[in-house]
Amino acid sequence: MATIDSLSSESETHDEHGHDHDHPAWLAHHFDTPEQQFDSGKLGIWLFLVTEVLFFSGMFCAYAMFRMLRPEVFEGCSQFLNTKLGAINTGVLLFSSLTMAWAVRCAQTEEYKKLVVMIASTLSCAMVFLGVKSIEYSHKWGMGLLPPGSYFYDEANPHPTAQQIVDQHGFSESAAYFLTHSLYFLCAPFLILLIGVAIWAVYSKVTDKQFQYACAKPLLVVCLSFFGGVGLGMILESGGGEHAVAHVDGEHAGDHGDADHAHADHSHDAPAEVAATHAVPAFDIESDDAAIELLAESELNTGARAMLEAKQAQAEMATGQIVAAGVEADLGIHRIEQDVQTKRQAGVFFGIYYCMTGVHAIHILGGIGVLVWLLIRSIRQDFNRQYFGPVDYVGLYWHLVDLIWIYLFPLLYLIR
Q1: To which protein family does this belong (predicted)?
Q2: pLDDT tens figures, 227-241
């Protein structure tokens, strides 16, 4: 009897603490109810998101400090950022937040086909974002818009060859080749991934492995979305691509042509007319300040432009006017701006730019990995009305990533 009683006692203990007979497969053994499991996971993801906010807040503080110290540097260097590409990426991430929220709802209502479509759409948006960002990065690297120490942008030669980078800026041949062909290096991993997924899809179709084929189909579309983003970025970068260089060159090239034409017409005038036009020979811009005028053709050379404008104002104000002793006179010189396109100044802006957007891109890659895991589980129909926590947790993480970009876009791209 003692043996039977002990066995009965052990059986009751197992039923009370083992949870083998009461718990479904998706409920962890250390939770008593689905609500307890969901609330615990929700608390964990919120604690993780708080650490993410603290992590990014450090970079935002660095941005605020450097911008307060050098506002003209940030305003000048932001001209090199393509606002159209940044706006496209902002719209893509906002749409991905919609599809992610919709995916959470589909998991709650057990609409598995819609759930797969929504998660695949979120993944596709993430890939488009990375494709556009690859175009932005490769374009700037080839121009030399790099962090301090590596910055070598030259307005006279905005797109140097690899040999010129080696000869003029001291880079190694391998580094120069990477900078001039960086787009190929950025696209290579995604191309390998696309080929691998395509082979997987064909193999699973031929061998009639339905589950694997169901996983490979949406992933193939996701991989193709990256190259769709690359193509979109190339179109926008080429259409308004030389937004900081070609616009300046083209605008002032026309002005220079008009100036040459005016100078040619002026050369045919009589010497008497020339003397009548320039009443103050000491401030003759064409004779004494030709070098300054040539340098001032570029908007980036703000110092020369300010000096030229000041001399022109002096010439106009000095004509026929006498300034008495002890009387203050405004001769048109307010301040001479410094050139911000230097390694020490512009390099700091691009260092902050690559740090903030690069870390954000790493978070996008991490989100892609987790979303692929959710996609496979959704095809397997692991989620239901009582167990949809993983989709909800990943959705919160994805919304934070999107929110951070909403702050990065105006702070970096819209400085005007």
Answers
A1: Belongs to the cytochrome c oxidase subunit 3 family.
A2: 999 999 999 887 544
